[in-house]
Design goal:
Layout: H1 2-12, H2 14-21, E1 28-32, H3 39-50, H4 55-58, E2 65-68, H5 81-88, E3 97-101, H6 109-120, E4 126-132, H7 140-143, E5 147-150, H8 156-162, H9 171-178, H10 190-205, H11 211-222, H12 227-247, H13 251-273, H14 278-291
Parallel strand pairs: 1-4, 1-5, 2-3, 3-4
Length: about 290
């Protein structure tokens, strides 16, 4: 399965691969694409091809490869303190050093400005690789100094290779939920899909007495995934139900669900762009739906 993922990127990243085949890169590279498509893993495989002791890359103990990742969804200035002293030292086992910073979209502006100083005047034998899900998350001065490579969403054939056995009847729903990414794959189990379907059943029934049960189910599911992905999953399953209702000429219920889903989708967009109290706002949307 992992080999299929590597081969997929290999077929679409010829220029990036050729760059790594050069004896010396010594520049800053930005690798951009959706979360969960294997950007970091693919880059590490390319790094291993250049290094004499690739097994140390797998164990994250190679002295000439420094990997920095976000913690709790953030990369702060203090996370970068090691870079300065590490980057100016000569390579220890290789002829070059490679710095990889994953999830650059989680790095704040202050941290990016600190990194910019190194990018503008990098040590002679240092290559910097910045991995991000959103190129616009990089400040313009940093972005302009990178050579950018874009990664695509994964095709359905790759996603299906990773789906657990026993979920064959749910493939289309799962493909819609994952949307070309393996980021939320662990959440996709028969148990969780059943609970999501139960949530949708309660929403469709619009029985006020079942409101507490709906909240309980959603709280249980929220322990295993982000609120965003949970609501995104519910919204997708509602779309499947709407299609079924329309095909059975149950137009009144379908209109109610469409209105609810539109409100849910609007709420999902607001989660990304504001600091709203998610629980209070979501409770209000659900309560209004059940009361109207």
């Amino acid at each position: 399965m992992a080999n299929n993922l590597y081969e997929f990127h290999k077929n679409s990243q010829e220029n990036l691969i050729n760059l790594f085949k050069e004896k010396k890169i010594s520049r800053t590279i930005a690798v951009v694409g959706p979360n969960g498509v294997g950007k970091k893993d693919f880059l590490l495989e390319l790094v291993k091809l250049r290094f004499k002791k690739p097994n140390k890359i797998d164990k994250n103990i190679h002295p000439d490869c420094l990997i920095i990742d976000s913690t709790d969804g953030k990369i702060l200035v203090e996370d970068l303190t090691e870079i300065n002293s590490w980057s100016i030292k000569a390579p220890f086992e290789e002829i070059e050093k490679i710095l990889i910073i994953n999830n650059m979209q989680d790095m704040n502006v202050v941290s990016q400005n600190k990194l910019l100083k190194i990018v503008e005047e990098p040590p002679e034998k240092l290559t910097i690789i910045l991995i991000s899900s959103n190129i616009d998350s990089l400040i313009p001065t940093l972005r302009s100094r990178t050579l950018q490579f874009n990664f695509k969403k994964l095709p359905d054939s790759i996603i299906l290779d990773f789906i657990n056995e026993g979920l064959e009847n749910e493939h289309q729903i799962i493909l819609n939920l994952l949307d070309g990414s393996l980021r939320n794959l662990k959440f996709i189990t028969q148990s969780n899909l059943s609970l999501i379907n139960n949530c949708v059943d309660l929403i469709v029934s619009k029985d006020f007495s079942s409101l507490d049960k709906l909240n309980e189910l959603m709280e249980e599911l929220a322990k295993e995934t982000s609120t965003f992905f949970l609501l995104y999953s519910i919204s997708n399953l509602i779309n499947f139900r709407v299609s079924s209702l329309v095909s059975n000429n149950n137009l009144e219920n379908s209109h109610n669900l469409i209105d609810f889903n539109e409100g849910l989708l609007k709420f999902l967009s607001e989660i990304k762009d504001s600091n709203i109290n998610i629980k209070i706002s979501l409770d209000e949307i659900i309560l209004n739906y059940f009361l109207n």
